[in-house]
Design goal:
Radius of gyration of chain B: 20 Å
Number of helices of chain B: 13
Order of helices and strands of chain B: EHEHEEEHHHHHHEEHEHEEEEHHH
Structural class of chain A: alpha+beta
Strand order of the largest sheet of chain A: 2-1-5-3-4
Strand content of chain B: 15-25%
Shape of chain B: globular
Helix content of chain A: 25-40%
Largest sheet of chain B: 5 strands, antiparallel
Number of helices of chain A: 5
Radius of gyration of chain A: 16 Å
Shape of chain A: globular
Largest interface: A-B, 35 and 30 residues
Number of strands of chain A: 5
Oligomer: heterodimer
Structural class of chain B: alpha+beta
Strand order of the largest sheet of chain B: 4-5-8-6-7
Strand content of chain A: 15-25%
Distance between the termini of chain B: 49 Å
């Protein structure tokens, strides 16, 4: 058994203290230790984007981030997107309105990526959305509706 | 991923001390290290997190050139106004690499340290033989599926392609890699496989990249990065080229030309034969086409990658003509 370490993570506005092995990724810390299972494990190798979360506001892959590495930084997951009253974030609402998913497994990652994509100013055309959302794969092939949802959400957020 | 211990380096000195140990691996963005640890290619006993070291993420651009801190993120460098204005090929190489998420994680120095995407190298559970992983064990790619493998710079020991984009642009514009006490040209930082494919970078134990500098030049300011690949985005290059062009005052004679290639060689590949063939010549289609063919001198194809020998000169030609305003 390796040494375990106690770390404190700031997730969705709440402080969480947890004891983990140093090799535990942020993805496994979220899902297996904190039971925040909205963030999905797809490839677990940085190739699919299903595990996309925000660290200090930037979209990153939780599967290639050590939990210990982001101690002291601000983490937002799909669970932290809706308002406290349950009101959906405009991107979540747009995904629903545009039916931008089939099986839904990639959707939390798509939505987290889209929120950042819009905030970065990279959602001004369909081509730009396709390019800047390229790190999120959808094996169902719901891409046309995803692009539509991101474009409409970008117009709403603006 | 095997168990390891974790320490967060507080100072560069502390990190250097750790970097002397073969069992310690430095962690910056994590996109290479954790990926390869999951593949079973690397098994660090200790991971030394240098991502929080202060003062190493600055980007400075002036008339003399650019100085990019080792820990600057790919996305920040790609979006930097000074880099985009004076080194468009560098900005474009970064933008066309990886995904938005990975560009937010990966650092500039870590990018230089990334390893090959050779499927045999990355899969030790299935393929025991790999001279890069286990020196002397053999190469499964030679005689295997090698569509994405290199045609230039190969050896009998290894044909793995250098996968990156940024370094291709850096090599084209004579960037320098700063290792603290010494500085090395980007071209010399990357090593040919030869008989020692396990050694990919001219970096010694205890050394850490602190910054990368790129001298300003007219060719760097008039430059572009063209990347051709199997899918439109989030894919490694089938063939790519960084091109920089400076014309004489007559507007059509080539004064300076920089060409470096990616996706086809075992290291970022400066195509000096193309540069030499075209310098002093008139910028026109016939000259550029003929000059671009020189890039493939000495190329060796294996079973599945002969297409790169046809593709690469076309990519070079298109890039030069495009930068020259002729395409």
């Amino acid at each position: 058994m390796t040494d375990r370490m106690t770390i404190t993570l700031a997730i969705n506005g709440q402080s969480h203290k947890l004891e983990v092995e140093p090799r535990v990724t942020l993805l496994d810390a979220l899902r297996e230790h904190l039971y925040l299972t909205g963030t999905k494990k797809g490839c677990d190798q940085g190739q699919c984007g299903a595990c996309t979360v925000h660290v200090d506001g930037a979209r990153v892959l939780a599967c290639l981030t050590l939990a210990a590495q982001v101690e002291g930084q601000t983490i937002t997951t799909i669970e932290g997107l809706a308002g406290e009253d349950g009101a959906l974030h405009p991107v979540q609402a747009a995904f629903l309105a545009q039916d931008a998913f089939q099986c839904g497994y990639c959707t939390p990652g798509q939505i987290m990526s889209a929120v950042a994509c819009i905030r970065e100013g990279h959602a001004s055309s369909d081509d730009e959305i396709r390019e800047y959302m390229a790190g999120n794969l959808c094996r169902c092939g719901a891409y046309p509706h995803i692009v539509e949802a991101v474009r409409l959400a970008a117009e709403t957020v603006r | 991923m095997k168990a390891f211990t974790y320490m967060r380096a507080g100072t560069l000195e502390e990190a250097r001390h750790q970097a002397f140990l073969a069992t310690s691996h430095l962690l910056a963005g994590g996109t290479t290290l954790l990926d390869l640890a999951k593949c079973g290619v690397v098994a660090p006993e200790r991971v030394v997190d240098i991502s929080h070291l202060p003062g190493l993420a600055t980007i400075e651009v002036d008339d003399a050139g650019a100085a990019i801190g080792a820990l600057a993120k790919m996305s920040h460098v790609a979006e930097d106004d000074g880099i985009r204005a004076r080194f468009p090929a560098v900005a474009q190489a970064l933008m066309l690499a990886a995904s938005a998420q990975i560009r937010n994680m990966a650092t500039i120095a870590g990018n230089l340290m990334q390893r090959t995407r050779c499927g045999y190298f990355r899969d030790p559970a299935t393929f025991a033989d790999c001279n890069k992983r286990r020196p002397g064990s053999g190469c499964a790619a030679i005689g295997g599926v090698n569509r994405n493998h290199a045609v230039l710079g190969t050896s009998d020991a290894c044909i793995a392609t250098y996968p990156g984009d940024l370094a291709v642009a850096l090599v084209a514009f004579d960037a320098q890699v700063h290792l603290g006490d010494r500085t090395i040209g980007a071209d010399d930082f990357f090593l040919l496989p030869g008989h020692t494919p396990e050694r990919e970078h001219a970096i010694e134990a205890g050394e850490i990249i602190t910054k990368i500098t790129v001298p300003a030049s007219p060719a760097a300011a008039r430059s572009a990065y063209l990347k051709v690949r199997d899918r439109q985005s989030y894919e490694f290059a089938a063939a790519s080229v960084a091109v920089g062009l400076e014309l004489e005052a007559d507007g059509h004679t080539i004064r300076d030309l920089r060409i470096a290639l990616g996706g086809i060689a075992t290291k970022p590949w400066r195509a000096r034969a193309v540069e030499d063939a075209l310098r002093g010549r008139t910028l026109d289609r016939a000259n550029v086409h003929a000059g671009s063919l020189r890039a493939m001198e000495g190329a060796i194809a294996h079973a599945d990658n002969r297409y790169k020998i046809d593709l690469t000169p076309r990519v070079i030609t298109r890039a030069i003509l495009s930068v020259g305003g002729l395409a």
